[in-house]
């Protein structure tokens, strides 16, 4: 059959296969192998150390435990795979030319002292990646070494489009030294003509010349020590389509910038604001006024973290009220934090969340709740366009909300998330009864790449930084309710 179809058609077929099927094509025939490797190896992931669940990490740090033998064996296996792949890149120019994106996941909490040689091999391989257009470093340890940054600087020059540095799980106040800032500045400047997406940790961006980042389309600033350079970003990034700020800074600094630059980001389509500390009502109101003018917005995610100690008021009402003024809004993330969750709050969500929203993330934080199942079903009946829904909440809402969505999810829902549980959803074509896939593995839930979302970049964006660069990681790490765990693909009676 391979000989009967033109090679160009096989390229199109294999291009749109799921990643696992593309890997299978490597073993089918030489023709399939030569085509598939272009897609399979366009994105390389290198793991330094061994990723562990948050509870394992904190337990190890608090009590100084050494890794178990099985962990040592797994870390050793990964190190050998990394070495073989990196050496192949260095020694095989035709293979190196296939690599367009390099992602490093750095979680060497116990193995950092063993990585000197591995980091050197990584730097050597980066210098051979002359077609590299995207580089991402995720994880707390080791911090991005200057040796790697220098190699990227030497190899990339005017080719990198995406440059991402996320020190996930780092405490916001952790100091990042001057050498890191210097190499970040140099890399940004060297690729300023092509750079379109940039994510940086700390204050690394503030000392860059504005011309270095003025052409960006997407910018994320994660836990800067100050907001001293934020005004420059709002002033000079006229082409920006997406803006993210994860902050622990005083909200008054945000108000000052928004007041001065009310007409910033005229092409904005995505906006994300995640605060570690509570944002008071004045800050949320200014953010709402700023966003209301951005008629092109498709994606909005704002966490205020402000909980009302008593009564039924919501601090972020000014934000909720502008949502229906955004005609293109499809992807929405928000938090609801009353002292007591009531049916009236669900009615507010029903009133203000636009019916055309296709992906919705809501973080609920309430001490008590008297919401009924019927209240939630009324809300979801008005939002049948939902294809992805992710809920983060503690115990008070689990019973009513869980019974509403697990047994009768929205009719077009394809993916459901509840705390740290994620499952694909299908619906019986006759009865519309839901069928759930297995739960995603813990590592897949944590990293949540676009590939793991089956190419849905909007969905990956919605959960980006949550449980990693926000202060609600305790909720995002909680297990889903037992009710949902008992529902598997063999259940017949889900209604």
TrEMBL record:
InterPro entries: F-box-like_dom_sf, LRR_dom_sf. Transmembrane segments: none annotated. This is F-box domain-containing protein. It comes from Dichomitus squalens (strain LYAD-421) (Western red white-rot fungus). The lineage of its organism: Eukaryota, Fungi, Dikarya, Basidiomycota, Agaricomycotina.
């Amino acid at each position: 059959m391979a000989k009967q179809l033109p090679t160009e058609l096989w390229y199109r077929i294999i291009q749109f296969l799921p990643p696992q099927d593309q890997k299978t094509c490597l073993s089918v025939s030489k023709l399939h192998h030569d085509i598939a490797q272009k897609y399979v190896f366009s994105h390389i992931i290198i793991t330094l150390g061994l990723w562990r669940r948050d509870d394992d990490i904190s337990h190890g740090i608090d009590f100084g435990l050494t890794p178990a033998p099985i962990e040592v064996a797994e870390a050793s296996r990964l190190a050998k795979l990394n070495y073989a792949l990196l050496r192949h890149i260095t020694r095989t120019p035709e293979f190196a030319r296939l690599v367009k994106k390099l992602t490093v996941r750095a979680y060497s909490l116990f193995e950092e002292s063993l990585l000197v040689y591995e980091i050197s091999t990584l730097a050597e391989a980066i210098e051979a990646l002359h077609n590299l257009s995207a580089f991402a470093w995720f994880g707390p340890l080791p911090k991005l070494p200057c040796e790697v940054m220098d190699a990227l600087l030497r190899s990339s020059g005017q080719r990198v489009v995406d440059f991402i540095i996320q020190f996930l799980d780092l405490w916001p106040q952790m100091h990042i030294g001057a050498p890191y800032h210097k190499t970040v500045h140099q890399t940004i400047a060297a690729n300023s003509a092509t750079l379109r997406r940039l994510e940086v940790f700390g204050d690394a961006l503030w000392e860059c010349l504005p011309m270095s980042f003025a052409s960006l389309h997407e910018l994320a600033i994660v836990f800067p020590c100050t907001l001293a350079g934020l005004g420059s970003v709002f002033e000079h990034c006229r082409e920006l389509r997406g803006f993210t700020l994860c902050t622990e800074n005083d909200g008054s600094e945000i108000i000052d910038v928004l007041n001065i630059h009310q007409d910033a980001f005229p092409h904005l389509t995505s906006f994300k604001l995640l605060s570690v500390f509570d944002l008071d009502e004045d800050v949320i109101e200014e953010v709402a006024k700023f966003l209301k003018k951005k008629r092109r917005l498709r994606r909005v995610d704002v966490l205020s973290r402000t909980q009302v100690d008593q009564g039924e008021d919501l601090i972020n009402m000014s934000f909720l009220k502008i949502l229906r003024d955004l005609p293109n809004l499809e992807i929405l993330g928000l938090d609801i934090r009353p002292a007591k969750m009531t049916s009236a709050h669900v009615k507010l969500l029903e009133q203000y969340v636009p019916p055309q929203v296709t992906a919705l993330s809501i973080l609920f934080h309430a001490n008590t709740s008297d919401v009924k199942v019927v209240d939630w079903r009324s809300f979801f009946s008005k939002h049948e366009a939902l294809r992805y829904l992710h809920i983060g909440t503690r115990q008070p809402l689990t019973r009513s909300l869980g019974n509403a969505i697990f047994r009768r999810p929205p009719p077009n829902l394809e993916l459901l998330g509840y705390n740290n549980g994620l499952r694909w959803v299908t619906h019986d074509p006759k009865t519309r009864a839901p069928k759930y896939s297995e739960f995603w593995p813990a590592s897949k839930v944590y990293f949540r790449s676009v590939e793991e979302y089956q190419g849905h970049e909007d969905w990956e964006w919605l959960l980006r930084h949550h449980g990693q660069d926000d202060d609600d990681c305790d909720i995002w790490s909680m297990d889903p309710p037992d009710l949902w765990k008992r529902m598997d693909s063999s259940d017949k009676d889900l209604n």
